[in-house]
Design goal:
By secondary structure, the protein is of the alpha/beta class. The protein has 14 helices and 15 strands. It folds into two domains: 214 residues, 3-Layer(aba) Sandwich (Rossmann fold); 185 residues, NAD(P)-binding Rossmann-like Domain (Rossmann fold, 3-Layer(aba) Sandwich), CATH 3.40.50. Helices cover 40% and strands 15% of the residues. Helix 1 packs parallel to helix 7 and helix 11 crosses helix 12. It binds ligand SAJ.
């Protein structure tokens, strides 16, 4: 029997030994889903604390409970290690490592290259590898495949099988999770797709095969570029409405009554997170190497990046109206996380706003129920302990992240002046002297 047929049979019988490389907010839920569906799973991560937590039956990821991990570890379905030599015994590998940007704005593929080097040492006939990390079209073929074929003498599609399947994890979401979110998957060869698709179909509710790894890589970038550009467009609308003296929030609510052909996006203080601001730049970078400028992406990125500074100008103008210079004013920033009701600071516009306010001489404090302290580049602060007192005493309260735990009617009543970058107070369409909206 050829390698593909043999591996497919092992996968269908759940006799294949699975590994997940990278046990973060994508890898750990995926490892749990594979294990809960009956595979023996080995999680591999270089961070000893993560490995220890899992082996002790503990979760460090929002979407997975300790009980889920403990049950799988106790039954022997799930274990973790920092030792990549475990790959010797492995039949199926999912790669879920970070793909950040360098300071220069170029893709940082160091994590992918590092795991590809490790994989290369342990690659054997009858192995399937699926890359999940978001990256530019061509990475699976040009980088991973090249590395795996370099010294192994093994043939892709015959001896081993390689595919790409973009992660679609939205931490904290409970309606769409790893197991029920449709999963796009594309192979380097038709046999690669057949094997990889069969594997994922054993554990995930809906697998969507496409004709190549590049189609799967590009689908993910379209998803997130669509979002980034639409947010950039509505942010520019907010800037235009500011010039026109028109309430952008009321405009959006009115436009959103259109039952077709419109999708609501909201302006904000900037674009945070580790996906939306970053993934599209992988695409524009790749196109630059092909002498093409992805103008929509560049423009949207420019507008989104300018929103923290636009927000600070609104704060300055609001204080100015109350004859208070920003320099020396006490400004309380509500919310540090990049979006409501999570504890993730990555690329958070709050950090830029706090930094800019400090540069202009404001006495800045912040509060965030999910983030007790900030220790980020030049920003080192503790979340204020007495929120009510801070709201009452600040010269200006800025709502940057609209966590649902805030008591907005109380803030509206007690604050002297509020800049609301999220329309969290819901006062759109109303003129309230002490409320300024984006
Ligand atoms: N944002 C706006 N206006 C909007 C929507 C978002 O300013 O109308 C801002 C947010 O405040 C945040 C940033 O954009 O700073 C990103 O927000 P997001 O809602 O896109 O949240 P993310 O970054 O967690 O995006 C994830 C993505 N999921 C994956 O990449 C797998 C994205 O594709 C999802 O669409 C999104 O979650 C979601 O829908 O929640």
């Amino acid at each position: 029997m050829d390698n593909a047929k043999e591996l497919i049979t092992k996968l269908q019988k759940k006799e294949a030994h699975v590994a997940v490389l990278g046990l973060g907010y994508v890898g750990l839920p995926l490892a749990v889903v594979f294990a809960e569906s009956g595979f023996k799973v080995t999680g591999i991560d270089p961070i000893q604390e993560k490995v220890d937590a899992i082996n002790q039956g503990k979760s460090y990821v929002l979407d997975i409970s300790d009980a889920q991990v403990k049950k799988l570890v106790d039954s022997g379905s799930l274990s973790a290690t920092t030792d990549f030599s475990a790959l010797k015994e492995i039949d199926a590998v999912s790669i879920c490592v970070p793909t950040p940007l360098r300071k220069t704005g170029d893709p940082d593929l160091s994590y992918i290259l590092s795991v590809a080097d490790s994989l290369q040492q342990y690659l054997h006939p009858g192995m399937v590898i699926v890359l999940e990390s978001t990256t530019y079209p061509g990475t699976t073929r040009e980088l991973i495949l090249a590395k795996l074929c370099e010294k192994s003498g093994l043939e892709v599609g015959k001896d081993f099988f390689l595919a790409f399947s973009p992660e679609r994890v939205d931490p904290g979401r409970t309606d769409w999770t790893t197991i029920n979110t449709p999963k796009v998957i594309g192979g380097i060869t038709p046999a690669c797709l057949e094997v990889a698709k069969t594997w994922y179909q054993q554990s995930l509710q809906r697998v969507v095969p496409v004709s190549s790894a590049e189609v799967a890589e590009m689908a993910k970038l379209l998803e997130n570029t669509f979002r980034m550009i639409n947010i950039g467009m509505v942010n520019e609308m907010a800037i235009m409405c500011d010039r026109l003296g028109v309430d952008i929030w009321e405009v959006i609510e009115a436009a959103a009554t259109k039952p077709f052909g419109f999708m609501k996006f909201m302006p904000g203080p900037g674009l945070g997170g580790h996906c939306i601001p970053i993934d599209p730049l992988y695409l524009s970078w790749k196109l630059k190497t092909l002498n093409y400028s992805a103008r929509f992406i560049e423009l949207a990125s420019e507008i989104n990046t300018a929103m923290p500074r636009f927000t600070v100008s609104k704060i300055q103008d609001a204080l100015n109206k109350h004859k208070k210079p920003l320099n020396g004013a006490s400004v309380l920033v509500l919310g540090a996380a990049y979006k409501a009701d999570i504890d993730d600071l990555r690329e958070s516009p709050s950090l830029d706003i706090i930094h800019l306010l400090g540069e202009k001489g404001a006495e800045v404090s912040y509060h965030d129920p999910f983030i007790p302290s900030l220790n980020h580049e030049e920003v080192r602060m503790e979340s204020v302990k007495d929120l009510d007192a801070a709201v009452r005493t600040a010269d200006c309260v800025v709502i940057v992240t609209n966590h649902s735990s805030y008591n907005y009617p109380k803030i509206l009543k007690e604050a002297k002046l509020i800049v609301d970058t999220r329309n969290a107070l819901g006062t759109h369409g109303q003129t309230i002297e002490k409320v300024v909206r984006l």
